[in-house]
Amino acid sequence: TPPTQDAAGPASTADAGKPLNVGFFGFAKSNGFAQGTFLGVQQAAKANNASATFVDPNFNAQTQVQQIQDAVTSKQFEVIVIQANDNQALIAPLQQAVQAGITVVVEFSVIGPKFDTIQPQVPGAISIVDLPTSNGKMLGQMGKDACAKVSKDTCKVAYLEGFKSLPLDNARTEAVKAELATDPKIKLVASVEGGYTQDSGRQAFQNVSQANPDVDVVIGASQAITGAAAAAGNSNIKFIGNGASTSNVEAVRSGKWFSIYVSDVVANGAKATELGLAKARGQQVETAVDEASLAPNKAKGTKEALDAVNYVSKYSD
Amino acid sequence: MDTPERVNRSTAPEITVSGIGKRYGASTVLRDITLSVAPGEIHGIMGENGAGKSTLLKILGGAIAADFGVVKLDDREVKIAEPRDAIAQGISLISQELALVPGLSVLENVFLGRWANTGSLLRSRRDADHLERLLAETGFELDPRAMAGDLPIGQQQQVEILKALARGAKVLCMDEPTAVLNEAEKAKLLKVIRSLARLGTTVILVSHYLEEVLGLVDRVTILRDGQHITTEDASGHTPESLVGLMVGREVDFLIPEVRPVPPEAKTVVQVAGLSSSKVKDVSFTVRQGEILGIAGLVGSGRSETLLAMFGADRTTSGYVQINGRRLRANSIREAIKAGMALVPESRKEQGLVMCRPVDENIALSTLSGRSLGGFVRVAREKAAVSEISHSVDLRGARRGSLIADLSGGNQQKALFAKWLLNPPAVLLVDEPTRGVDIAAKARIHGMIADLAAKGTAVVVVSSELEEVIGLSHRIHVMRQGRIVAEFDRNASRDEVMASAFLK
Amino acid sequence: MTTVTAAVSEPAEKKFKLNVRDFGIVFGLIAIMLLLTLNTGTFLTGRNFINLFDQAAIVGLLAAAATLCIVSGVFDLSSTANLAVSAIAGVMITQHLGVIAGFVGALLVGAALGTVTGLIVVSTKVNSFIGTLAVSIIYRGLAIVITGGAIVAPLPEQLAAFQTWTWPSLFGLTAGSVLMVAMTIVLGIVLWRTTFGRRIYAVGGNKEAARLSGIRTGSIHVAVFAISGLCSAMAGMILASRAGSAQPAMAIGIELTAIAAVVIGGTSILGGHGAMWRAFVGVMILTVIGNGFNLLHWDTTYQQVVTGVLILLAVAADGLFFRKRTG
Amino acid sequence: MTTVTAAVSEPAEKKFKLNVRDFGIVFGLIAIMLLLTLNTGTFLTGRNFINLFDQAAIVGLLAAAATLCIVSGVFDLSSTANLAVSAIAGVMITQHLGVIAGFVGALLVGAALGTVTGLIVVSTKVNSFIGTLAVSIIYRGLAIVITGGAIVAPLPEQLAAFQTWTWPSLFGLTAGSVLMVAMTIVLGIVLWRTTFGRRIYAVGGNKEAARLSGIRTGSIHVAVFAISGLCSAMAGMILASRAGSAQPAMAIGIELTAIAAVVIGGTSILGGHGAMWRAFVGVMILTVIGNGFNLLHWDTTYQQVVTGVLILLAVAADGLFFRKRTG
Ligand SMILES: Nc1ncnc2c1ncn2[C@@H]1O[C@H](COP(=O)(O)OP(=O)(O)OP(=O)(O)O)[C@@H](O)[C@H]1O
Ligand SMILES: Nc1ncnc2c1ncn2[C@@H]1O[C@H](COP(=O)(O)OP(=O)(O)OP(=O)(O)O)[C@@H](O)[C@H]1O
Ligand SMILES: O[C@@H]1[C@@H](O)[C@H](O)OC[C@H]1O
Ligand SMILES: [Mg+2]
Ligand SMILES: [Mg+2]
């Protein structure tokens, strides 16, 4: 028989005076993006009478599952803020955590099968995420903007996907393609795996530009675009990066790249932590937040938008 | 599946091979072999190293496939593509290169692949009982639970023999089964073969021991350079006449006269109180030009004494001195630097790197001497290797040949060549002529005697008593890790045997 | 002859010694567990053991299969790619024919793909390491082709039944853990007490000797790969059951964790040696180390360094102090 | 003796035949390249070859080192963890002492860590597969400890000089590619013609026979791991040079790609066999397959399936039609 759902919900709510412990289950300690988020987590924790700990799964989803289970056992944290390395493997352990009275905040990457909703898919959790579908749509829009500046009849665009085997990446890719397809001027000449490292991006770009020497716009993960732009040297190609590390922001503001999709990781981490702590202390909070709404210019990081707020990134990759 | 313990021996078929041929790349190793073996016959196959004996047996046993020709059993043509086919026909092969699974026990190896079982659950007890009977019949002494890989090579050979017996084979093909056995074990095996033949089993036997063959077989086939020379009744032959047929010329194969050690010869080797896990307090000396023989049963610690002297086995006490200089314990490199060379007993495990070319193997232990600034001086190496190969009569090696592609006897010669490439001051040899043909054996004996005559101190371990007694100036007998007796070269076989067994 | 008799007559003590040596790695596991029991209040609790077994289920199933493969002298690096395809197939069948058909279907697909892997490796004579690596790329690709790169899930009304492997069962363990333990025991008996098991040792220990004894070495390897596929499918169904869905990137890289667990347990990577309980102990060592760290509240920055050192210590101790070396 | 003479005098034909067989895998590479040349206008261009070599640089360096390791009978799974630590150390030294010191320092750190890996594996007698896996976990942890998980970069004014490995040099190839080719040639000669190379083959082919020939098998292995560390550091500096920075997660998993390349080239995973050119061919096969796909404009959904099949075909063809089998 299936286990009976613990209907009671959070077993206890802490009073405001008690210091709380926040566990930040980031992608990996070796990941700048996660480190940036942790900065926000730490700031919010400090401001709200709590401590913050980075629990490192080193990009491994199964390790992360284990860490969540063990956190439930050891009752080390009242609040869990998680950047999931897998959108499905973590559902069950996080449910356990919720049932054990821990406040769960799903941060940045969606947990659950649906990539087009910001609503929490782990019952009882708070969801503050960046949707791959709206992310992809925005990347597509920026691609259209870039193409508008290309003075040719057709604008050739290449998209560097993440990994073909990741549904999350595929959902994003579909959204990018759909958005680009609305502009008859645009021809998508390549959509290939570009991965999440500079080296994989460099390699993908070399091959794409070999096959399409006249490509006008290249869109992809910020690390891949960094590798691609380095391989391109001085060219007229308009690069659009998905990510906003210091070097990404600098590349756009200096005019080397066309634009980036901005995630304000510090703001995201801080907001997620604030929501989590508030809920743990018995307050009513928002349970679904779109991170794009926290970023400058709704995440559309053009030079003008970034200059306008004099945007400074807090993480490097 | 239950194991039929003894098949009806009278069903052994007449075996006829006709037109059998085998090529490896450009070289033909068997050419148009035609012969037949009668049911219940003991048939000897003889020839020089590389003549193609093992190849022929492997074809019969299905280990390799012939390129030409057919095998018939009682006039019925059979296809033997795999060992499984041969086994199904009642043919069992005991190959020259032992084929045991090192991590399984003696018991498990003897019944390899055909363990007693009920619905595939093992019934080890039944196999154990069966093995006990086989041990009693053969007189072999083996611990059924010992790991095959831990056994000395002679005992491994016994396991191979038991394996073939356990299958109740009608035709038993044995490739040099006695090469690694000592006198006593050999005698037991020959007894077993005779009694099998009496019960109707056909035995096809390859061996380099002329007396042994003549005393055992009904008929003998001679191969030379992959060709069938003749098949004749054994009764009309003497060792000399067989050698003549094999080699096609006269050879002198008696152990050469060893020159007496001059009384003023210095002591080169001094072993003092040497102990290791298998060796207990062994002390002896060897003088310049002297050949010391060590006799004993398998497992008595002879090989281990050599290994301990050479720094290869960890010693717990005692030391070795060469020319008055005491060697650092457990350092093979220091032993080699001091001029010591060890020809180990197992060429496959200890001696040769099977997947490497012949030249590279021979040059391996003396690389430093033929290199400049770390680079191998290939031309120099080639010249030296070619010279030494010539003097040990190494055959069948083409350019780039792997050691694994040589015949067993030629591998042994390569092993010997490896340690003679730089003439050693102290030569330790363990079973030096295992598997080599009679002419080559004489050559190796001659070389050992020559080296001694030029001043090398030699220690010979051999399970062939004739070899030990014939070559040595003095003989030590070991039992359970200790030296228990000492003889001079006039000792009789029986005396030496007795002291190896006694108590 | 005296020597032989002597050897036989010093058995009792000898045998005992051998056993203690053989079980060296178990003491490593016990030592780590003792340490954790003394240093945390939470390690030695029923709840935690239920977690431990649940955490070990996936790697445990893969390691049990990997033991058969490794002992027989092959690697199956395609096991988790097979896992993904089987789980996806299982979910798709579930959508059309129901949960039970889905589970059964997944197992059939897993075993079939395993058989195909085995046939490819055996017939091309390619080294299994590289052969199964190539096959794993193909299977992952297949998973993408089947799903179009998307997630597949059973129908909403099937979900509760589909998640059966996460339910508590025997001793409160999750059904998935129980399946893992059961398979470990079954395959352990197969390896230890059946003719098939002996053939696996023989083929892995000396393939030529096995062949000369009439063992069909190819069939043994195909069978072993088929079992590996079956275990992959089981692991896949447990993972899908936990997640409520399946996708092409499932369990990437875990085949290496499974191999590591097998080797940490003391099974020789060279084949012909080893035992099923060793895989279990290896899996438990890896799981307990991870679990312990999380319970100890240590800084995870040092976790990796310490994990590496612990694995090294466990294996080295086994080699240096306990197990008999051959060679 | 007559035979010996005869043998030496039937060389020409024989030698040629042997070579054709030996070079089977090269034909696999040529076939793929021919296919791409005929089906794309872009494959056979200077620019693309410059790209190919650049893409092959990292795996090429690691595969050259892996060849030494594998031939000598060990694996070094810690190579890319070492790569990360060396690159990080190189960047940190650059910050304080300049670019040249940084590069030299990285190489020293890489070689030193490699030596440590070797000493650990040799002294604990742990199987190298599991030993270096544990070491790799430790080194990755070390990288996180040193950097606190952050990225490290040379000072802005050092950047141009630091990126020297991405500059075009000989034949327009990037300096990184040239370094890879040079190391492959140097290590190839070491393996082929030096006493050290001979000892590597001997130790990998039969460790006991090597030991009894007076070879210090431990020293050989330590030396091989040290060289592996050196190559890792070179690869690390090229990567850092491209990126303008270094970080703990660099090049994760690429050690397996390198091993795959070595084996695809035809070097036996069992040790004692193989050659350096084989690593290069293996690396090129993998690189060309990836490159070709993107040039062909095929639907990338099928890319993985086809990649796997091509690898399998290349290796199987080598085994079935060309190379002589040794049981
Ligand atoms: N795999 C192989 N490749 C190439 N040549 C081979 C191979 N196996 C055997 N040979 C060659 O075939 C010939 C016959 O070898 P075989 O082993 O049958 O000799 P043999 O008569 O048994 O010799 P010995 O008395 O030394 O055991 C030899 O010249 C040997 O080098
Ligand atoms: N037997 C051996 N086992 C392992 N390493 C060795 C061995 N002999 C030499 N070396 C190492 O190889 C390197 C070269 O040493 P050495 O000069 O003694 O040998 P060589 O290269 O064979 O000789 P040569 O200088 O005559 O070319 C040294 O680093 C040494 O430590
Ligand atoms: O840059 C981010 C990467 O670090 C994370 O792993 O996934 C999302 C990316 O945008
Ligand atoms: Mg022979
Ligand atoms: Mg002996």
From TrEMBL, chain B:
Query: What CDD domains does this protein's entry cite?
Result: ABC_Carb_Monos_I, ABC_Carb_Monos_II
Top-rank taxon of the source lineage equals Bacteria
The name of this protein is ABC-type sugar transport system ATPase subunit
UniProt key word Lyase? no
GO MF: ATP binding; ATP hydrolysis activity
User: What Pfam families would the database entry show?
Assistant: ABC_tran
Alphabetical list of SMART domains matching this protein: AAA
Please spell out the taxonomic lineage of the organism that makes this protein. Bacteria, Bacillati, Actinomycetota, Actinomycetes, Micrococcales
Q: Does the keyword field hold Lipid metabolism?
A: no
Which keywords does this Swiss-Prot/TrEMBL entry list? ATP-binding, Cell membrane, Membrane, Nucleotide-binding, Repeat, Sugar transport, Translocase, Transport
InterPro entries reported for this sequence: AAA+_ATPase (IPR003593), ABC_carbohydrate_import_ATPase (IPR050107), ABC_transporter-like_ATP-bd (IPR003439), ABC_transporter-like_CS (IPR017871), P-loop_NTPase (IPR027417)
Which residue intervals define the domain ABC transporter in the entry? 15-250, 263-502
Which PROSITE patterns does the entry mention? ABC_TRANSPORTER_1, ABC_TRANSPORTER_2
**Species, as recorded:** Arthrobacter bambusae
Automatic annotation (TrEMBL), chains C, D:
Gene Ontology terms: cellular component = plasma membrane
**Keyword list, A-Z:** Cell inner membrane, Cell membrane, Membrane, Transmembrane, Transmembrane helix, Transport
MF (Gene Ontology): transmembrane transporter activity
Membrane-spanning regions, if any?
23-44, 56-75, 95-122, 129-153, 165-192, 220-243, 249-270, 277-296, 302-322
Taxonomy, superkingdom: Bacteria
Question: Do you know which CDD domains this protein is assigned to?
Answer: TM_PBP1_transp_AraH_like (cd06579)
Cellular compartment(s): Cell membrane
- What's its membrane topology? Multi-pass membrane protein
| Chief localization | membrane
What InterPro entries does its record include? Answer: ABC_transp_permease (IPR001851)
The record's listing under PANTHER family reads: ABC TRANSPORTER PERMEASE PROTEIN YPHD-RELATED-RELATED (PTHR32196), AUTOINDUCER 2 IMPORT SYSTEM PERMEASE PROTEIN LSRD (PTHR32196:SF71)
What is this protein identified as?
Autoinducer 2 import system permease protein LsrD
**What organism is recorded for this protein?**
Arthrobacter bambusae
